[in-house]
Amino acid sequence: MAIHSFRFFRVGLLILLIFLLFFGQAVYANAASWEPRELIHKYLTAHYPWAEVEILDISGYGDLPKNPPLKIHLISGPLGRAAFSLSFKSGEKIMIQAQIRALDYVVTSRRPLKAGHTIQKDDIYLSLIDVRRMPREALSRLEEAVGKSMQRSLEGNMPIEGSVLGDPPIIKKGQVINLIASSPGLKIVTQGEAKENGRLGQQIKVTNLSSKQDIRGIPIDEQNVKVLF
Prior knowledge:
The protein is of the alpha+beta class. Helices cover 18% and strands 36% of the residues.
């Protein structure tokens, strides 16, 4: 009895192997040679400038044609819940929905930065954030911020926007400078003291060291201020 059972087992095993050999190959041959998630990811990275794309969920399709689609059309999105239409050579179309998240680099403060501080390279770094949370004027390259002056204070680990930056002052508060007063045919130069930081073309308060009088002037370079009458 045991011998017959063993023979039946061997015959059954042989039949199973034959089935897998022939029908398994047929199933594999009919399987799609592409994967929707990978296809959508390639489409997004080719059409959008984001540093990283995450497909958190994908749905809406059943059996897939063997060959990849000829065209992909974005119906809605691409961020959040997106919909794609896939067109195939046979004329068949498939609608796919996916939850899309994109990340990109922004310049971020490494530590709290006070108003008036001139940004150095070690003050900032690049961080990846969700593009939907990215401030509109956020900077994406470190060189856009290095050497600029903070127009207002900023906490650490915060995205830096172009609107909070300005050119650094060319004249510092307390600096002894040349005051230049000129009119057609006349030019007077005397020493003064800057009472506040000054940027190129920005009015600042200065003191004439000879008369001790406070006046207004406009920095024209790192050492000279044109007096306003």
